[in-house]
Amino acid sequence: MSIKPYLIQFLKYILVFIILICIYLITLTLSGLIPSEWMKDNVTKSSEVLNEEGEKKFIDLGYKQESVFLFTDALMINTAYSVDSNTPLASSMLARKNYIPGQTTEIYIDSQYNLGASPNYINKSNGDLYQTKELYGLMHGENITQSFEYARYWHGYLVILRPLLAIISYSGIRIVLLIVAIALIGVLLFLIGKKINLQTAVFFLIGLLAIHIFYVTQSMNESIVILFGLASSIFILLKKDTKKNIGINFFVIGSVTIFIDLLTEPLITLGLPLIIYLLLMQKQGSTLKENIIDFFKICIAWAIGYGLTWFAKWILVSLLYNRPILQIALEQARFRSGEGSSNSYTLGFVVDRNFNFLSITIMQALTLFILIYAMIKIIVNIKKKINIKDNLLQCIPFILTALLPIVWYFALRQHSVIHAFFTYRILIITLISLMILPDILFKKEKEKT
Predict the structure, then answer these.
(1) Could you give the 3-state DSSP secondary structure of residue 68?
(2) What is the pLDDT of residues 314-358, one digit of tens each?
(3) Phi and psi for 212 in degrees, rounded to 5?
(4) How many CB atoms lie under 10 A from the CB of residue 153?
(5) Which of 70, 128, 150, 283 can bridge 123 by disulfide, Cβ–Cβ 3.0-4.6 Å?
(6) What is the arrangement of strands in the sheet containing 146-149, beginning at the earlier edge strand?
């Protein structure tokens, strides 16, 4: 076996990675050149909305209370405003909050666990931070002199957020997010109906409604990565040669995910386009072996793109700005997995907590839906030749995909318990995968590829 094709492929990945890092650095620099003064009025208005709504906004849906986390949105807006256009790249890479030239006297580097806050905005009894109130104080004349870095993440959202804040406030950004969500969902469902089938488009719509996609747009932090997941799925559907460069495509998707995200629901950018890809490949006649190989290839490529890009941020900050970020980030990863936490959560507890946020009512309705749909498929195809054994084997890639959120919960047990009110949304991958199974299981033989 010649080693040359593998070497060429490896070099392609290296080149793509270098290009991505250069794009990230250039776009962060360009967005950092926008003077914060241009954003001041809109950031002030944004702080007023966030201060009124609080750290977490609750929406009564009747059958459950949906919570929208605004704590991190306040942090993102604070970080965007605190970028110094005189040092655009350094400011963006170090990601300081509360930084105002001439006012800031103390700068604290990224800490091992929680991001710090001005003493007035720390609950002394439990250590909780009040990001929305702190942003409000900063923008309404309070002399906050302490600035805090959050350099472990890329904060690529700044590339979008800073230009937006120069034009509109937080309320306007929410409208933009909602419009983008509606547009992406419309295009996605249309393409799924056209290139796969109508029932799969319905399954995707049910999954998106189950995670309350339109309420999610009330939070920038929680919606950006989901919107990117929808865009990535559309990209896979629009590819003329679906299989070509699929590893590199998911490598890029994984890389961009960690560039824009603050560890919310990143798995969605893997799971949704992966389901689309597997369905397209089955429709084009790929074998079970090819689908399973592609499943692992895609997951590995996405994970490497995600992990390598994150690691690159730690290395760059350590080398360029002399911050011990690598040690801090690795310890934080250990803590998020539950290994460094005082609480040891079992996988069963983590999964149960996230399923409960999805709501028992929705789970019961979807279980009933799947059972009824399966029965309909059986009745419709009862006189047709069906090879259940072969069809069951074709279900394997989708069963593996359905298990991805469980693997994620196991790897990040502590994070998935504390933030279950938004990490539950990666269960959309499980829901859609399970809804697809009856279609495959009861497919008549002549339709099989």
Answers:
(1) strand
(2) 999 999 999 888 877 777 766 666 555 546 788 999 998 998 888
(3) 60, 55
(4) 20
(5) 128
(6) 96-97, 146-149, 106-108
Give me the torsion for CA of 134, 136, 141, 147, rounded to 10°.
30
How many residues appear in the chain? 449
- Is residue 66 within a helix (H) or strand (E), and if so which, with residue range? strand 65-69
The contacts found for 82-85 with CB under 8 angstroms, 24 or more apart, are: 82/36, 82/147, 83/31, 83/32, 83/34, 83/36, 83/158, 83/162, 84/32, 84/36, 85/32, 85/33, 85/34, 85/35, 85/36
* Residue position matching structure tokens 């079992």: 346
Residue 418's CB: how many other CB atoms inside 10 A?
A: 15
Spatial separation of the C-alpha atoms in residues 139 and 132, rounded to whole Å? 11
- Is the CB of residue 192 less than 8 Å from the CB of residue 238? no
Two tokens, residue 385: 């030749």
Give whole-number Cα distances, 70 to 179, 222, 308, in Å: 20, 9, 29
Q: Say if CB 280 and CB 236 are below 8 A apart.
A: yes
Distance between CA atoms of 447 and 167, rounded to whole angstroms? 53
Alpha-carbon distance of 90 to 221, in angstroms, equals 22
* CA dist., res. 181 & res. 156, Å (int): 19
Nearest to 18 by CA among 258, 253, 305, 323: 305
User: For residue 146, which of 193, 82, 84, 208 has the smallest C-alpha distance?
Assistant: 82
- List pLDDT tens digits, range 346-390: 899 999 899 888 876 766 777 777 777 777 766 766 656 666 777
Residue 427 is given by DSSP the state G
Residue 108: its H or E element: strand 106-108
